[in-house]
Amino acid sequence: MASSQGFKPLPQSNASCSQQNPGQRASQQLRTPSNRKTIYDRNLNRTRTAELSRASFAYLFSEMVSYAQKRVTGIQDLERRLNEQGYPLGLRLLPLLLYREPPRTSVRPNRILPLLQFIHSPLWRNLFGRTADAIEHSSSADNEYMISDNEPLVNQYISVPKEMSQLNCAAYVAGIIEGVCDGCGLKAAVSAHNGGTEMWPGKTVFLIRFDEGVVEREGLLEAKR
């Protein structure tokens, strides 16, 4: 009897909490705004004109490059990792941008030219606040197209050492483009290349190389017109 008197009974509230499963306890610990609304309750059009400060973007992107630079074997490996980081963003941006388009134009591009125009204007405007500078078709290969940006924002805040002068961090944007192409069912490989000129030393050319099957399908559709 003396030993049993040394223990104090648990308060009723704590005893009831101990009987709850971990999922219930975790849900009780989540903090929600006073209006009971979360980010999932926001209208998707609410932030369509919002802009991120360049200082915030520069910091976040430099950290992404630093992260991708770990354990790489060379410049091509680093650009590949940046491309892989941008690819999921392209897949997710496509349905969001189509949702924000007017109903008469919110159609997923299923041809090469409409897709390139979608990348050149709506996609570029959403990412950088302006359209891309040019769209070109390669004269040597039917499946190759080029989109040019004279001053890529992603390269303006990156200091590239001399021994890595061939590095182009716009490979991240190339990954976004590749994700958009694949999301439209027009599979392509996209890479970023330095194309600097005397007037535009930081110019970047995004080479979009569509699969042969995409080009064959395009030819069949053109023949039916």
User: Which quaternary structure do these chains form?
Assistant: single chain
Overall form? globular
N- to C-terminal distance: 97 Å
Instruction: Indicate the low-confidence ranges by residue numbers.
Output: 12-18
How many helices? The count is 7
Please report the total strand number as a whole number.
4
Structural class: alpha+beta
User: Biggest sheet: strands, sense, closure?
Assistant: 4 strands, antiparallel
Question: Percent helix among the residues?
Answer: 40-55%
Q: Order of strands side by side in the largest beta sheet?
A: 1-2-4-3
Note down, in words, how this protein is organized.
With 225 residues, the protein is an alpha+beta fold. It is 44% helix and 11% strand. The chain has a four-stranded antiparallel sheet. The model is unreliable at 12-18 (pLDDT under 50).
Key features of this structure:
alpha+beta; globular; 225 residues; 4-stranded antiparallel sheet
Summarize the SSE layout with pairings:
Blueprint (H helix, E strand, L loop, with lengths): L11 H7 L3 H8 L24 H15 L6 H26 L11 H17 L5 E4 L6 E6 L21 H13 L4 E7 L9 E7 L1 H13 L1
Antiparallel strand pairs: 1-2, 2-4, 3-4
Helix pairs in contact: 4-6
Brief account:
By secondary structure, the chain is an alpha+beta fold.
